Amino acid sequence: MWDYSETVQEHFFNPRNAGAVDNANATGDVGSLSCGDALRLTLEVDLESETIINAGFQTFGCGSAIASSSALTEIIKGMTLDDALNVSNQDIAEYLDGLPPEKMHCSVMGREALQAAVADYRGEVWQDDHEEGALVCKCFAIDEVLIEETVRANGLKTVEDVSNYTKAGGGCSSCHEGIEEILARVMAESGETFDPNAVAGEVTKPSSGMTNIQRMKRIEELLDEIRPNLQRDHGDVELLEVDGKNIYVKMTGACSGCQMAATTLGGIQQHLAEGLGEFIQVLPAEALAQRSVPGA
Questions:
Q1: Nearby residues of 189 by Cβ (< 8 Å), 6 or more positions away
Q2: What is the pTM of this model?
């Protein structure tokens, strides 16, 4: 499980400014219920000075999402809109005395909600729609622009870092190649070379410290938690092998060859990543067979 700071816990159990602001004249909506996180930020802004008088939030998400939203509203109250726009996702995380690396995307969501609210107040159109070809991660509807901005702002170096900060790549992992291309392009701007084998940097945390046997047992336990859902549709999942961050499974019964198999694998991967508290990839049996072929 993740190690939450006392400040994160405090803002989760006793969130500040929860609910909509009565006299709001600015609203920012980001995220999607279907993707697991959604945030509405409402602001009451003084018309003359453009100072944020009051701020409130309504969040559907995990404890980190609630804490990040609470922290954001506390930070920006009393600021002018221009000053508030300079608040970064790192400022939100630091206010909370840190967030687990896998939950940094919650602070990024807060920053986006603020940008959307300011745009709403000023009568501007805040673009959260994805132009054709710009969508990188279909599982969580994350586009190329957001990934690029987040990589630059936070000095991200690996696909794992990007997943922690944006959720992109944390589902079915089919977008990992696209994320690697973005990392290579952005890192080249500062003369760096992307290394696909690099270990995630300081923005991520070390593994849970479990032994291999403990980790295997935990994976089996997590699979048992979702197995009833698969069995209701006459399917099942079998753990084949664990190789570092790669977890190979075999879909059986009705799940074998199902048109929704990729989506099911993405759901399994997300559940295992949450339960293990680390970045992993769930791969089908075919990938394990291909790995054993010389030159594959």
A1: none
A2: 0.61
* Catalytic annotation present for 172: no
* Structural domains of the chain, ranges and CATH numbers in brackets: 6-121 (3.90.1010.10), 135-189 (1.10.10.1100), 212-291 (3.30.300.130)
φ, ψ of residue 86 to 5 degrees: the values are -85, -5
Among residues 106, 137, 172, 255, the one annotated as catalytic is: 106
Q: Is 240 buried (19+), middle (13-18) or exposed (0-12) by CB count in 10 A?
A: middle
pLDDT range class, residue 91, cuts 50, 70, 90: very high
Q: How confident is the model at residue 95 (pLDDT cuts 50, 70, 90)?
A: very high
- CA 42 to mean position of chain CA atoms: 22
Mean pLDDT value across residues 120-125: 90
Whether residue 1 is predicted with pLDDT greater than 50 in this model: the reply is: no
State residue 128's pLDDT score.
54
258 catalytic, yes or no? no
The two tokens of residue 64 are 């980190």
Question: For 273-282, what is each residue's pLDDT tens digit?
Answer: 878 877 778 8
